[in-house]
Structures are given as structure tokens and as C-alpha cells.
Amino acid sequence: MRILLTKNTDLDIVSKELGADIEVECIEVIKTHPVSIPSFDLKNHSLIFTSASGVNAFFINGFKPNEDFTSKSYNRIYCVGEKTKKALRKHGFGTFKVLKNAEALSRFIISCCQHEKFLHFCGNLALDVLDDSLPLQNIKYKKVIIYHTEELNPVISEKYHAAVFFSPSGVRSFAKHNSLDGVMLFSIGETTSRELRKLTSEPVFTAQGNTLVSVLELIKNHI
């Protein structure tokens, strides 16, 4: 069986989870580029990160959160996904709350954090879930574009039994020149699955853990 992963991935982890009999190829379908912006005072704001790319670009630009919760300028950090959480940990910062996706984060903020002011450090193609929902509840929210996502739109001539997707922009990039039909489709999360369903009537298998290992376990259960 041949499986396409639409991002560069640690093949040792893949082989460990799926076994040596499965042939796996990684092809990048998107690239991210940090945007240079002047750092500014984060005082009295809570910070939102919805991707590891956003975290990395944030620190490249010289921002530094204040994690001293006894300070008036303390920054709570909210993030989406374990990969984003790990990126923050690499830079020495923890998280106040980790949610599975932007929809879950939006619900949590509306229910529990209405009096906070939020800065969302994200890419130019970030979904408008928070942008659409939080201001309607009179919650102060600002999106800060800190990286750009480039869709590479590769033409892929090889045939695969299954393809694995990790973001809505990755789905769009792949689908520009390649068919999604006749292939088993696996997705890291519901947001990515929704993008796939817009473009094909094929069944989409969605991982529940939003991690590479959870996707690989899902594949193992369906092949």
C-alpha cells in the first residue's frame, strides 16, 4: 500500500506506527514564511496561537510574553493543538489553555473569558472563526498577521492508495492540480476534513487527537 503525506514528516515515527510494509512518501504542499513586524507591548492582553508557525514567527520578531501571573501585565496564552503547545514549550513558555480547534477555543473564550483582551498571532490564511465570533460577543480581539502561507500547488503524477492532510490550505494546494477521487482520505482534524468535503464526495477519516500519531493510528485502523 502506498500513502502520501502532504508535509515533511519523521519517517521513523511513521514506520514505527504503520510498519515497514507500508510505502510512504512525503510531499510538501505549502510553505510558511515569517513576516517581519516591529514588536510591541503585550501588556494587558491574552495571546492566542493557532499554529506552530505562528509561535515561531512570534519569537523571531522579538516578542516576549510575561508569564508572571502576579504581575499586572501578565499574559495568558491560549493555543490550538498539541503541536502549537510543543512549539511554545520549546521557547520556554507554558499555556493557560489548550483546545482542539478554533471552534472549541471560541466557545471557551465566550463562556469563560469575556473580559479579557485578545491578540491572535496567525498567518494570512487563518480561518475567520475567532474573528467572526468573538467581536459579536463584545470581546476585544485583534488578529496580528505574523506569517504568510504559500500554496505550492504541486502536480503529482504518482498514484497512491491514501493521502493524508494537515491543514485546509494544504488541501486547497493539493486539489488545485490533483484529484481527490478514488483515494482514501485522512485528516488531522475536523477543520481540515471540512475543507476536503467541500471538494470531494469521498469519505474522509478524521483523527481525534490532532497529532501525527493519532492520524497514523487512524490509518492503521482502516487499512
Can you characterise this structure?
It contains eight helices and eleven strands. The chain has helices at 11-18, 52-60, 82-90, 102-112, 129-133, 168-175, 190-199, 212-222, and strands at 2-5, 23-26, 30-34, 46-49, 77-80, 97-99, 117-123, 140-151, 162-165, 184-187, 204-206. The strands form two sheets. Strands 3-8-7-4-5-6 form a six-stranded mixed β-sheet. Strands 2-1-9-10-11 form a five-stranded parallel β-sheet, sandwiched between helices. Strand 1, helix 1 (11-18) and strand 2 (23-26) form a beta-alpha-beta unit. It is elongated and about 55 Å long. The N and C termini lie close together (9 Å). The model has no long low-confidence stretch (mean pLDDT 95).
